[in-house]
Specification:
Number of domains: 1
Structural class: mainly beta
CATH topology: OB fold (Dihydrolipoamide Acetyltransferase, E2P)
CATH class: Mainly Beta
Order of helices and strands: EEEEHEEH
Shape: globular
Strand order of the largest sheet: 1-3-4-6-5
CATH superfamily: Nucleic acid-binding proteins
Strand content: over 45%
Length: about 130
Amino acid sequence: MNSVNSIVLLGHLTRNPELRYTSEGRPVCNAGLALNRRWVDLNGDKQQETTFVEVTIWGHQGEVVAAYRQKGQAIAVEGRLEEERWKTATDEKRSRIKVVAERVTFIGPDGGAAPEAESLPEWVKEEV
């Protein structure tokens, strides 16, 4: 049986995206995403739950996100889940699941209406 590893998220950035470059010069952007869920429980009370997810955005698309998005702004992410594993200084095993973005879409300049395409530079229009 083949597996499917695909995820679509829509949320707000929890911090300004952090851009760095690998030793080979490849851009990589790390960002935190807050995903809010709201519902009414069986008693009729409004409930809210927030889930925080780490997102890694590689290449030119990562540069675009770092240049044009900041904390609080909304983005949509299409990507895949990936487990990150490491050992602490005391040799304890740790792991976490993160999202590796394959496509990022801006949701408006401040999380509202989408920006006019004419206002974006040509290189951004190609990626976003």
